[in-house]
Amino acid sequence: MTVFGVAGEDRHEYTKEESRQVRRRSRVLLVDLVRPHIPRVVATIVMVVLGTGAAVLGPAIIAFGIDHALPAVLNGADWMPLWGAVIVYVLAAAVAAVLMYAYTVNTARVSQAVLFSLRRRLFDHAQRLSMEFHEQYTSGRLVARQTSDLESIRDLLDQGLNELTRGVLFMAFTLGAMLLLDPISGLVLVSALVPATLLTIWFYKKSTSLFRETRTTSARMIQYFVETMTGIRAVQAFRNEPVNEKEFGKRVEDYRDANMRTIQIFGIYEPGIVAIGAISVATVVIVGGFRVVGGDLAVGVLLAAMLYARQFFQPIQGIGMFFNGYQSAAAALEKISGVLEERPTVEEPEKPARLRRLRGSIDFKNVRFAYNEDKVVLPDFSLEVPAGQTIALVGTTGAGKSTLAKLVSRFYDPTSGAVKLDGVDLREISNDDLREAIVMVTQEAYLFSGTVGENIALGRPDATTDEIVDAAKAVGAHDFITALPDGYDTDVNKRGGRVSAGQRQLVSFARAFLADPAVLILDEATASLDIPSERLVQEALQTLLADRTAIIIAHRLSTVAIADRVLVMEHGRIIEDGSPDELVAQGGKYASLYRAWQDSLV
Amino acid sequence: MSSTTPQTPQKRGILKSLGLIYEYIRPVMPRMIIGALSALGATIVALVIPVVMRALVDGPLMNNDPSEVWPFGLLILGLGLAEAGCILLRRFMVTQPSTAIEATMRNSLYAKLQRLPVAFHDRWQSGQLLSRAVQDLGRLRRFLAFGAIMFLVNMLTIVIGIGVLIYWSPLLGAVFVLVNAPILWITFKFERKYWGAARLSLDQTGDLATTVEQSVHGIRVLKAFGRGPHALEGFTKQATDLRHTEIRKAQLDATLWAWLTFIPLTSYAVCLFLGVWLVSIDALTVGQLAAFFATAVVLTFPIESIGFLYAFAIEAANASVRFREVMDGVETIRDPEEPKTIEHPRGRLEFRDVHFRYQDARPEERDLVNGATLAIEPGETMALIGITGSGKTTLTAFPTRLYDVTEGQVLLDGVDVRDLQLTELRTRIAMAFEDATLFSRSVRENVLLGASSDSEALVDRSLAIAQAGFVRDLPNSLETEIGEEGLSLSGGQRQRLALARAVAAEPDVLVLDDPLSALDVETEALVEEALRSVLASTTALIVAHRPSTVQLADRVALMRDGKIDDVGTHSELLARNEHYRYVISSLEEEERNRKAIR
């Protein structure tokens, strides 16, 4: 078993080595995220220190007022010390308030900057990861990473620094003062740190796997939620609500259970720390009390020592809270850093080759492609497609047609051999160049929320409105779009709710038209079109494809007919290759398909 | 890309907003109250401990009396442990009910969402639903378990503290209250501003989730066009907006906190001056003045804490408002009050002058389905043909009531579908959708989604009819988990599984929305052949584009502009309806005709 990347994400019990490994990578990520903001973090800490100082000053001023300013007034009617105390107090209040403001805003700035960069990194990285990753990782999990995991980190960033700085500061000051005042009481406090540390280690160990469990269970819950909402039609049509309610309820309960255990473990840790504090305060009192009675200690010193001892343990709760937040955030960072650790199997070249004068010839050189040892899709495939040629791939499901399309569009890389564009291996072409040169339109025409126009513009984001309209006209989408309530500005809303599948395909054709690539791949891109629309699209295709390379995968032979060349595939090999007319004349597989199709026609 | 929240939020008070979820809090109120009392106990004990210390110092130690050291020491120990005990008790009392509230609300929200009609889901983006179900409820839980209790305890401490201050010196106490009074006004102003910002932040968080989800669902398109950077740009913009909102919130917070720091400290300064003056004119003793400040200082933290607790409360209030917005969604499609049953199920499906328009359609728009009338006899297979946008898919959503007609009625065996219980209706009618939705479950579970038995024979038969035997080659055969995007199944494979699912439901009526569009010609022919056996005994409405699918049907209905234009056999329509010829005749056919004419 491994914990590299997202592997082992669903487990929460790791071996020591694994635990170290995931902790390390999340620490590295955290440091990396915070590093650019170190000046600001330092400034914030200074503010907290100063602010705490100003706040601590208050009681001292009151003491001064009562011990010195009051006698001055009483004895000599000298009001100056009192005025001084009051003015200093108000000034201190103002300074504390300003620092409070600055500190709060600064913390938010750091926290938001870190979250912002983490969100972007995750989003960008997810976009770069290959299809192979997405086919297994589901959107729900990525959403979980981006939402509830980030929330945990946010809690730490917002609260943690304050709690920690203030707490440590307070404890250090108090301990220092105590040691100066009465070393013996000071030693009592120091020795209390031993059980406190032991308790903290216990909490750390226990909570690590529990917090992991909260992340895992919350992701599972979110994933289920997202899927239900995405597939709500099927859920309702097949009366799956009760089953779902049970299953979702189970996941909610799992999450609640994990969550509750983290709260409970903190619920033991926190009062535990308070109890340790109570014992040491009592020890200070008893030891000090006897020393006072024995004449070894002044009464005033003991009073001060007792109050200090009490004060010493107050911030420890805050530090505990910080620790709790840290554990929760660390578990979230483990998951996020796992996603970020995943490497795209389809990698961008470090030194991309320059494409000179794009022509669009495609060349398969001894390509082998296998998902795994048992599942070889293309054993040894070679094919040359000259620039400008339109080829059609025909063959049954599993013959390897879609794989071919995915290789050309570089959704996957070949296991061995090479696919070349104008003689350059696709793996050596930068992503930007590649996507500009080669575009694929698939059967699943996804619309993003936004307007119809924006969706077409996805083909070329800098296109003008006129260009968008022209593209839509070219593929015959203009009419239905203008019939929509707001024309091109109509919001397609969730998953294209109000646009039919055929219309979605037209929009995605318009996208491709607008993108104007040198190589166009159509993978079942007309499947949902009605015949009149298909007819329009085909007319558009004839002009669109005239001067570019095209690979068409279509089950309908009507689409195949516009190809210059037809390849019939079977088990990853080409069994027939020629122009449509030639193949019909040859009387092979294509000819029989053609006849069957002719018979099916009206 | 852009996004919206359907409802414009209206502002109400914090208590009123939290009252919206009172029904969930009520059952656990006793435990919450005990929790709050424990918290109060801890606070009181914390206040008593210094008093005991002082008593020890002022009493026995002054008199050098060693016999009292142990009792006092143990008393302090006892109080300290009692404080720890109170904290433990509070956690114990509150953890269970607060997480229970969160879980119950989450489950209710989920159940509600499952009951809400598809039209609701069309309007609401999934990220908005998710952020309500997860983040909002998490915040609410933390507020109930911690924020609300601290709020109560601290307010109580402040009130008691002020009482004590007035006891020490009515004048000083009154001045203390007076100088601190502006806090009320400042918090009031804060609430007004913070309310909107808090709401905006929650909404923007939901939008961000939507974008993430879409970027994964649409990953193929983004990759095919190399638009990852473009999507990132849009995402960055949204994330920037959220970041600004959060910083705006922090600024509001910070302003409040600054005042909450400044005003009490200033009030101490004023009281110090006044107190010294009072002592100087013998209106107050030094001891009283010292005692006054000893109490006043204790109030510093509770007053300061109002700041973040108040912000916390506003967020929680917004979370409950957002929760309510969904819970108040009208279940337009639900079981009838007096359900009818079908005595003799035969499977006759009839559309009677059916109309449909979206709620937000403009007055001048014509109805999407505009008076469609069609009857499908028991056992009959009806193909539904029409150009894109003619209303076919919309029509298929009525029998199972994914949408309800806005006028007219749909009858199953003579009973209006709205008079049947949803479970009964949806047991009798099964659907296969154009875009096959598969869930992250095993192949078997996906196929048996709507089936009444889980017999092996049923699975086998359904898979055989849909020509979905390929699943047996998957790594774990039928037990293979497929992802929401159907692992790496092709479109045709997913469609066949969806078809198998519809067949496995063994309904009286099958409604298939272009179920074979992604199949290759040979597989299509095999599926059609196999389907015939099912269709012989089952009523079916099949949306089709291809002549080959039409040939499965006994009769064909032609849809045009939201109406059923013509019904008849394929050859009848071909002969008499020109629009039908336009819709169904292929390019090749046209070519041939053209050649023939020449």
Oligomer: heterodimer
Query: How many independent structural domains of chain B?
Result: 2
CA distance, first residue to last residue of chain A: 59 Å
Shape by Cα distribution of chain A: elongated
Please state the CA-atom Rg of chain A, rounded to the nearest Å. Answer: 35 Å
E-strand count of chain A? 10
Strand neighbour order, sheet with most strands of chain B: 6-9-10-3-11-12
Estimated radius of gyration of chain B = 35 Å
- Integer average pLDDT of chain B: 87
CATH class of the largest domain in chain B: Mainly Alpha
* DSSP strand count of chain B: 12
Helix/strand order of chain A, N-terminal first:
HHHHHHHHHEEEHEEHEHHHHEHEHEEHH
**CATH architectural label of the largest domain in chain B:** Up-down Bundle
Major beta-sheet overview of chain A: 6 strands, mixed
CATH fold type of the largest domain in chain B: ABC transporter transmembrane region fold
Specify the structural class of chain B: alpha/beta
Query: Which percent range describes the beta-strand content of chain A?
Result: 5-15%
Task: Give me a quick take on this structure.
In chain A, 66% of the residues lie in helices and 10% in strands. Chain A has 19 helices and ten strands.
List the topology elements.
The complex is a heterodimer of chains A (602) and B (598).
Chain A: H1 16-34, H2 38-76, H3 80-128, H4 131-137, H5 139-181, H6 183-230, H7 232-237, H8 241-293, H9 299-341, E1 362-372, E2 375-385, E3 390-394, H10 401-408, E4 416-421, E5 424-425, H11 431-437, E6 438-442, H12 452-457, H13 465-474, H14 478-483, H15 501-515, E7 519-523, H16 531-544, E8 549-553, H17 557-560, E9 565-570, E10 573-578, H18 580-586, H19 589-600
Parallel strand pairs in A: 3-8, 3-9, 6-7, 7-8
Antiparallel strand pairs in A: 1-2, 1-4, 4-5, 9-10
Chain B: H1 14-19, H2 22-25, H3 29-61, H4 69-115, H5 118-123, H6 126-168, H7 170-180, H8 182-217, H9 219-224, H10 228-280, H11 286-298, H12 300-327, E1 349-356, E2 369-376, E3 381-385, H13 392-396, E4 407-412, E5 415-416, H14 422-428, E6 429-432, E7 441-442, H15 443-447, H16 456-465, E8 481-482, H17 491-504, E9 509-513, H18 521-537, E10 539-543, H19 547-550, E11 555-560, E12 563-568, H20 570-576, H21 578-584, H22 587-597
Parallel strand pairs in B: 3-10, 3-11, 6-9, 9-10
Antiparallel strand pairs in B: 1-2, 1-4, 4-5, 7-8, 11-12
Helix pairs in contact in B: 3-4, 3-6, 4-6, 6-7, 6-8, 6-11, 6-12, 7-10, 8-10, 8-12, 10-11, 10-12, 16-17
